[in-house]
Structures are given as C-alpha cells and as structure tokens.
Amino acid sequence: MTAVPFQTSEFQRGLATNVLGRVVHFRPAVDSTNALARTLTNEGAADGTLVVTDFQTAGRGRLDRAWHAPAGTSLLFSLILRPRIAVGRFHQVTMAAGLGCVAGIARATAADARLKWPNDVTLGGRKAGGMLGEFGLRDDALDYVIVGIGLNGNFDPAGMEGIPPGAASLMTAAGLPVAREPLLRVILEEIEPRYLAVCAGESLRAEWARALETLGESVRVTTHTGSIEGVAEDVGEDGALFLRLADGSRQAVHAGDVVATRPI
What single string gives the DSSP state of each residue in 131-200? Predict the structure, then answer.
C-alpha cells in the first residue's frame, strides 16, 4: 500500500485547463468532498472549483452506501460546476465527468477504463470507483452541479473490509503505484472540453453510450422498489437505461444497481 499526501502545488503545475481546478480546496480529511463542496457553493465558490482530500470519514455513493478507502491512497475529489443549462440537462454534466474520468485514466495509465451504468468506473471489467452527482436550484433555475468522484488508488482491495469483492484499483490495473496529482490533472483536462460542450448545448449521450460496458448485456436492475430484468439496449439524454423485457416491451430505468445475468 502506497500512501502519499496529496500535493496541491504538484497537481497545479502544468495544469492545462481554463476553468476546472484553477481554484483548489485541499483538506487532509473531510466527512465527504461533496459535503464540503456544498458548503463552498453556498459561500459563492466559482465554476470549476476543485475539492480534494486524502481521506473521507463519511464518503457515500449510490443509494447512500458508505465509501471506504485507506487514507492517502485513493483519488477522492469533487467539482463545483455552474453550467447555464436547463435543469433537465443536469445528467449531461455527470456524463461529461464520467467520460473525462475514463479518458484521463486511459491516457495516464493505459488501463482498460470503462463506465458501468449508472455511475461506476471499471478497470478490466471490475469496479474501481464511482461518481455521485448533485444539483441545486435558485429561482427554479439550475444554480450548481457538484460531481464527486472516488477512485480506488494505490492499494490492493482484495479482502479489504468495506471494499466489495472483486473490486479493482488503479495500482492493480496498472501494475504499479499511480501518482495521483498527474492523474487528476489529465482527468480534469479530459472533463473540461466535454463540460464546455454541454454548456454550449451539445449532447454527450452517444459518446457516453459507447463508453458503457452495460449496453448489450442481459441485466438485472435493482431499485428501491424491486428488481427488473431485460437486455440493456440504449440510454437516454437524461441518463435513463432502456431495457427490453422478456415480453418484448421496453422500459426506462433511472437509477439502480446493475448486475449482468448472462451474455446475449
């Protein structure tokens, strides 16, 4: 396990962005980067503000699950974004973040990084991290979007308490420890053009669909209300997953856990 404190000055050296990461708030430990980002947002934090930490005491993911990672090993950060777009296009911002994340990982490590619907990051088909998007309104208009990203870093997750069985990490995928500062730099450099494209009215749905390992699989999606099985056929502009059910009907699912049931 390689635990090295995050170095803000090293991260900012050579950062080739105009918006993302120009303002950085680093804390050695926080309850969660998204929670700190919400506080900073209420204090007027600018578009592109980055919150990063070495350790989260109350990190959470989808369905409010806890997020565990050894201190100083993983990449844990949130972005505060202020896109001037319709509220209904919020999911396009999270698509930009996911696409930038896997593109940055591939660029920095050559690892096989993909996305699993709705917001997991996989390496070699194994879960290595995830994203959590939140938004806030002001006078019924979108005021901000916060996207939190956590990536298993320089540790072997096999057999670790609080880490799901079969999980991967950047270190296990790359075969050696991965410096977090240059990785975060290239991730933000990949997110920014996609984020700006969304702000300009473009859609990332097609690129996002190509990055999803879920499409084409027979899957079971478990939600708060139950489970549904079908073939994952497509995704919508709002991030919905379209399933073709056994009776031939098509159903949209907007949130849930996905497990492949069998190859088609």
Answer: EEEEEEEETTEEEEEEEEEEE--SS--TT-TTS-TT---HHHHHTS---HHHHHHHHHHHHHHHHHHHHT
CB atoms within 10 A of CB 73: 22
Residue type present at position 211: A
Mean pLDDT over each residue of the chain, to the nearest integer = 92
Q: What is the pTM of this model?
A: 0.94
Element (H, E) at 34: helix 33-42
Tokens (6 digits) for 196: 């700006």
State phi, psi for 97 to the nearest 5 degrees. -65, -45
Query: Judging by beta carbons within 10 Å of its beta carbon (0-12, 13-18, 19+), is residue 138 exposed, middle or buried?
Result: exposed
What gap in Å lies between CA 207 and CA 35, rounded to an integer? Answer: 30
Whether the CB-CB separation of 3 and 71 falls below 8 Å is answered with yes
Q: Which fold has domain 8-210?
A: BirA Bifunctional Protein; domain 2 (3.30.930)
Q: For tokens 């609080």, name the residue.
A: 162
**Distance between CA 116 and CA 119 in Å, rounded?**
6
Q: What is the band of 65 on the pLDDT scale with cuts at 50, 70, 90?
A: low
Integer Cα distance of 18 and 54 in angstroms: 25
Q: So what's the pLDDT on residue 3?
A: 75
- Is the pLDDT score of 72 beyond 50? yes
Per domain, the residue ranges of the chain are: 8-210, 214-262
Residue with more model confidence, 134 or 4: 134
